[in-house]
Write a structure and sequence with these properties.
This protein has 473 residues and is of the alpha+beta class. It is built from eleven helices and 23 strands.
Length: 473
């Protein structure tokens, strides 16, 4: 990699010669600068764990079946927000930085590189001990980004050009960062086999408590105060060592290649998972949204699996739950789009241990749309909250008895060109040192059965618990 570092440093030096004069012409003293370069033959799988832990803040996002990957390390810029103005405040600051941005991206025609990555919590909340490493909303521009896009890999180096900018210092720092990155890439972080020391949240007492919570919600639904509510539960593990995220990603990639894999690390905490649920994709002036609601287990044989699929496609309870989500999405995006297309027939999204009703929705975006304004209208969907939204949020807060944090929150990326993709942080867990807190939820509507809903959460928890060779039942 020494040859690449030298050649890339030369290209970076030439880029700086041009960008320095452009930056000085900007009105602001601070300018965000992004340098992209093509990189070949760099594999990071075995180094994911060590790279994550070497940096105070890092971010991993992958869609294996699309050969798309983002790995961001450190931060050149961060927009942290807390409180009920988090969407609007983020939108305002992003627009300000857009006016003060320079890159060489035009050297890569048609490539829409990610720039901001990060997450938003399910609701605004005063951070408790479990989620104290995360703001209600945090969008950062990593200092170093490794990106796989359309079969090619790229290195992005991002920094702030300020009044005291020094070309020599910046070039030296660039080289130093690459040397550290590639030196680390030759190291393999082997960890001992994990053992579960303790598990809580899945005892008969916990099951009874959760079923009582569902029954209470059903009474409220039957009184017509709610149409739907999504309730969750958590299982808390203490394991013998801190988890190895290189192994976790390899496991999730093998078993959930059509899901979105993610790790958001900050401080002592790492939020990770493999979610099947995309909230929104913005690409080339088009919006794509997935309605994913209504679930059933996988069959043990092909014939049994097909029977369960057909039953799900004709199940009144699940179709009702699914329809609620579709209507919400349509109503939420109507002011930002035109030519909304909703698939007439729902499909089945099959995962390793569960299958879902799935409907694709697309629309043409209005030219003046704002990503964060649209997300505020769309999120949270009834697929992870309920309907009506405000009443559901209040009841969730009352019944669940804990803060969801980033669980069922927003994870994703975007850039200044109105491109981006955001997913829902389900099938997920929070790792704090050697503690793993896994979450799962399900939609409660009229005719829901508490026993069936509990079994559905068991299926969903397996995505995480199976990583530690533990059966949640």
């Amino acid at each position: 990699m020494e040859e690449f570092i030298s050649a890339s440093a030369d290209r970076f030096t030439k880029f700086l010669a041009d960008s320095d004069s452009k930056a000085k012409k900007k009105y602001s003293n601070n300018v965000l600068v992004s340098f992209a370069d093509t990189i070949n033959n760099f594999q990071i799988d075995s180094q994911i764990d060590s790279l994550l832990r070497l940096h105070e803040r890092s971010f991993y996002y992958e869609k294996p079946d699309e050969n798309f990957l983002i790995f961001g390390l450190d931060e050149a810029l961060i927009i942290p927000e807390n409180g009920d103005k988090r969407f609007a405040a983020t939108d305002k600051k992003v627009k300000e930085w857009k006016q003060n941005f320079i890159s060489n991206w035009n050297a890569f025609p048609g490539k829409n590189f990610p720039l901001f990555v990060g997450a938003m919590k399910f609701t605004i909340e005063h951070a408790d001990n479990d989620w104290s490493d995360y703001n209600d909303s945090s969008w950062l521009v990593p200092e170093i980004m490794l990106v796989k896009l359309e079969g090619q890999s790229y290195l992005l180096y991002n920094f702030i050009h300020s009044q005291d900018f020094s070309k020599a210092v910046t070039i030296s720092k660039f080289k130093s960062k690459l040397e550290k990155l590639f030196k680390n890439s030759s190291q393999v972080n082997n960890k001992p086999q994990l053992k579960i020391r303790n598990i809580s949240g899945n005892s008969p007492k916990d099951k009874k408590k959760w079923k009582n919570m569902v029954s209470e919600a059903l009474e409220i639904i039957n009184d017509n105060e709610l149409e739907k509510i999504v309730l969750s539960r958590k299982v808390d593990l203490v394991i013998s060592e801190e988890p190895n995220f290189s192994e976790i990603i390899q496991n999730l990639r093998m078993n959930y290649k059509d899901s979105y894999l993610f790790i958001y690390h900050h401080g002592k905490s790492s939020f990770f998972g493999a979610t099947p649920e995309r909230l929104a994709k913005f690409s080339h002036g088009t919006l794509e949204v997935d309605a994913l609601a209504g679930s059933a287990p996988r069959g043990k044989t092909a014939d049994e699996d097909l029977k369960i699929e057909n039953d799900l496609l004709n199940d009144k309870k699940n179709l009702n739950e699914h329809g609620i989500v579709i209507n919400h999405i349509k109503n939420s995006i109507s002011n930002f789009t035109k030519d909304i297309v909703i698939e007439t027939n729902s499909h089945i999204r099959k995962l390793t241990n569960i299958q879902h009703l799935w409907t694709k929705i697309s629309a043409e975006l209005n030219p003046s749309f704002s990503i964060h304004t649209l997300l505020k209208e769309l999120y949270p969907t009834p697929a992870i909250c309920g309907l009506p939204k405000d009443a559901s949020l209040q009841l969730i807060k009352k019944l669940e008895g804990y803060k969801r944090g980033l669980y069922s929150g927003i994870i994703g990326w975007f850039n200044f060109e109105g491109e981006g993709e955001f997913v829902i942080g389900i099938r997920s867990a929070l790792s704090i040192n050697n503690r793993i807190i896994a979450f799962a939820g399900c939609g409660i509507v009229e005719n829901s059965d508490p026993d069936n809903e509990y079994q559905e959460t068991e299926l969903k928890l397996k995505t995480i618990l199976s990583l530690f060779n533990e059966n949640p039942s």
